[in-house]
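Can't paste images in this forum, so I'm doing it all in text. The chain is below; anyone willing to post the predicted structure tokens underneath?
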Amino acid sequence: MSTTQFSTESRGDQYKAKAYAAASATSPLALTTIPRREPGKDDVQIEILFCGVCHSDLHTVRSEWAGTVYPCVPGHEIVGRVTKVGSAVTKVKPGDIAAVGCMVDSDGSCSECQDGLEQFCPNEILTYNSPDRHLGGVTYGGYSDSIVVKEHFVLHIPSNLDLAGAAPLLCAGITTYSPMRHWGVTKGKKVGVVGLGGLGHMAVKFAHAFGAQVVVFTTSPSKKEDALRLGADEVVVSTDDNQIKKHIRSFDFIIDTISAEHDIDTYIQLLRRDGNITLVGAPPKPLAVSAFNLISGRCSLSGSPIGSIAETQEMLDFCGKHNITADVEVIPIQMVNKAYDRLLKSDVKYRFSIDMASLKSQ
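Text version of the structure:
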């Protein structure tokens, strides 16, 4: 079996790992070392092979959302190889390919956890920038050579999936899969996808795999060819009123992936009776909603975060069955700051995936 290839300078129950961290909201990500705990009886140690770059990484690093603690090591789309397991671990063994998503712990006792919905736990511990119950300070994410996680929060990756493309499934994938499952997207349903970025391109792939009729809404006519390649049946330029009007009151479900300010009423009016539109993007300001458009069709507007651990594993297994991964541009860790600049310009198709082997050379 493979043995760990990252730095393991032990200090009692800790070791040092290489990572890229931001020292402040205005600092570029740079090489550093961080403490990781030695695995306890319920823990799994993973050598990180690939880590996806999520827009929330950028928001957190640049303190655009409240509460960033520095140094900040982002990354919650993690795929790697198990290198060590605790004595009580039965889920994985050294040498297995495994994954870690947006959560690394929860209290396990609240009603949400008891219902198998850890993502709603009031004491959820996120993969980075959450209180670290083991070492103090905050948790550090996947822009690192290794991570140690409780067994419950470790996931299996189907063997047929490309690992670089599988990494973004741990956030972009489950964020779009979960609401589609919740709202019953199946064969025969008409599904709208608003926006064709990191989240939107995954939504198209899932909706298509579920057998739905898929319509992509974009402000960029140039994205039509790509949308069709990804599985869309039709592409609507959302600034063209005539194209919009052809779809009035016809959608069962719409997933809105846009994080910028936009006119959500444009899409609410497209829902048929009892239709739903779910927000997975997070615009910085409240969106204006016409109550009439909701009332007249008994429609609903909702939001959705990631899914539970069980649902995330279900999603990964579904991806294995249908050979679904994210479209990625693989980069070395040394290019992550340039990747952030490009992410702000939507200059990626459709997700960056960091090859963490690049960290070993530093």
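The domain at 172-303 is CATH 3.40.50.720 (Rossmann fold). The first strand starts at residue 9 and ends at 11.
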